[in-house]
Amino acid sequence: MTTSATEFIDAEHKALFSKICNEEDKVTRELQAAMARHPLLDAKVRNITKVLPNLEVISHDAKQLSDMIGFASTLIENVSYKVRRLDVARSRVFECQQRVHDLLDLQLCCDGVKSSMNIGDFEKAAAHVHRYLSMDQRLLEKTADDVNQDSAAVNNSISLLQDAATKLRNILSEKFGEAVKNDDLASVERFFKLFPLLEMHDQGLDKYSDYLCSQIQAFSRTKIKSTLDNKNVDKRAGIIFADVITLLFEEIASTIEVQQPLVETYYGPGRILKLILKLQEECNKQVKGILNELWRTRQIEKYASMVRDKNRSTSTLKPTDPKDLDQLLAELTIIQSRYHLYLKFLRRKVAGERITEKGGEQNDLVAMLDSKLQSSDLCRLMQELLNNYLLLEHFYMEESVRKAIQMDCVEQGSQTSSMIDDVFFIVKKCIRRASSTSNIDGVCVVINNACGVLETEMCSALMNTMKVGFPSGYLDLTQAYNVMMQGRLQTTDSEQSKAVFIAHLNNTDVGSEYINTLCTSLVSEVTCSTELERRKLESCLTGLSSVSAAMGSSQELGLQQLRNTAIKPRVLSWLDSFSTLSHVLSEEEFSSYEANEPFIRGFIGNIDNFLSEFKGLLTVNNYETLVSILATEVNSLMEKVIMKTEFNRFGGLALDKEIRALVSYFSTATSWSVRDKLARLSQVGTVLNLEQVNEISDYWGSSPLPWRLTPVDIKKILKLRTDFSNDEINKVHF
């Protein structure tokens, strides 16, 4: 065997030997683990051996317990069977007793009906018949068959009571009719209480409802006649139809309030709905008559047609003065308010019912009531009345706002014109009047109409004034107001135009505040009965934001017109003196310049005079905005003038002090922060005040405010210094 073969065999043997050794080690470990568990297993086996005798005892006891449970189960089944038989026997005894009692009561009822009918005691007769009717008729007939010897007597009693019930029903109907004819309320209520005893619930309610309807009809006729006779002399003649409808609703509500306990006591719960629906039918008739008279007397159709024709631009009639509609609109809102209050009363009364005799719940009763009301003439008439009210209210609002704009004037000492207060007074009046109707849909319509009127009329008028612009020329607004109030200026005079422009600019600011106040007040004033109504109201109020946006656009345009006409030309003229002054100063010239302040004193004085003229005339917000615009213009225009001027070290120092004085003045002139408006100008002064060019590296990036100047701008500004060379400036790196 060769050496290589021997080595191969040795390697193979080594691998097998290693594998066998590993398996041996594994088996050894398993054997050791098993031997280690041996004492534990021995202990468990010994414990099991000890328990085995006890298991035999437990098995024997369990068998005995099973036998006892089986015996008890059998015993219980036997007892239960006997109990069931006893219960059946008891129920049969009870049935027998009931049949005996029914037979006894049958005879008593028969005798009692005869005697009561003879003496006219209908209450007792009805009670006896009611006792008979409450008996099981099938059981009575079976009893008569079972008791052969008394079957004839039982059948005779049944026949007699049936005849008595029929006769008594006829008598009650006749007596009730006589009581109604004689208007004898006590007798009407007496016989009304007896109908349920004879199982005449529906007939009794129908007859009693007809009687109550006749009473309401008579009441309504009396009130309508009294209204027509006194409509010209009554102090409340302007809303007399609303008063009549209110009295009608109150009469019906009072009737329901009084009759509900009577109906529930004698007819049972759930019956009041039938009475309410009957009364509602009569209410529909009476309200229709009252509203027809209202339409005729108040000429609502005439006004509505006039408004519709006007909207179509086809009217040939003279437009109605909106003041003529004021009283009518108030009356219509009162009617709507009373109508919704009346409906709430009906729903509350029906919802107060516990259950009907058929087991229906409150929701079913209320749903039935709502269904009847929605399909009633009352609902249709009130909806028609509401539609005409909304039409006339829109006309009233639109025409009143137009008249307020046409009569616009500026009173002495007032920052705004009369338009803004008058218009918002009219709008708030219309919306609050609509909210008194308690109809959230009507309120939303009026709010939407108000948004449209404010945008198309008032905002347009303000925007037109802003588009005309602020008249140029000599600016003395105080004099303009005084002269205008004395009547010495015509409407075309520029001073009056300036005063009107300022007043209308203030209108835009005050108008935005009024809109926010109006939204806040309406949220708290308008009553919403459900979350859905609340969301409707909030959705409509968001429409006022468009009016506020239109106001803001007019305000922004007006301020820009002031900037272009009044601010920019003035600032340019004030900066002319800066260009005439040399800013290449010697030390002596600098001292003289610093002492005399030839530019900044006059410049700040001009600004102060300019702002003082506007401070008392503009609203706080407009004035603050004006100061901000002025600061922005000064920053822009002064930088342009500076870029055309040369400076040396002392000239730059003088300019920096002037700019600091200017920033300080603007900071005291307004409560708003204007330092950012003048930040670029301040940085120009800082750059021109440098002693050395390379100092810019110390300032760049270290300022608390971000640099508004770019590196290119800084180099251009540095080149304004006559003492800085271009080479030094070009070497600056940022």
TrEMBL record:
The keyword tRNA processing does not apply. It is a peripheral membrane protein. InterPro entries: COG4, COG4_C, COG4_M, COG4_N. Gene3D superfamilies: 1.20.58.1970, ESAT-6-like. Belongs to the COG4 family. It comes from the Eukaryota. It holds the Pfam family COG4_m. The keyword Nucleotide-binding does not apply. GO terms for cellular component: Golgi membrane; Golgi transport complex. It is found in: Golgi apparatus membrane. Residues 161-467 form the COG4 transport protein middle alpha-helical bundle domain. Keywords: Golgi apparatus, Membrane, Protein transport, Transport. GO terms for biological process: Golgi organization; protein transport; retrograde vesicle-mediated transport, Golgi to endoplasmic reticulum. SMART domains: Cog4. The gene is CG7456_0. This is Conserved oligomeric Golgi complex subunit 4.
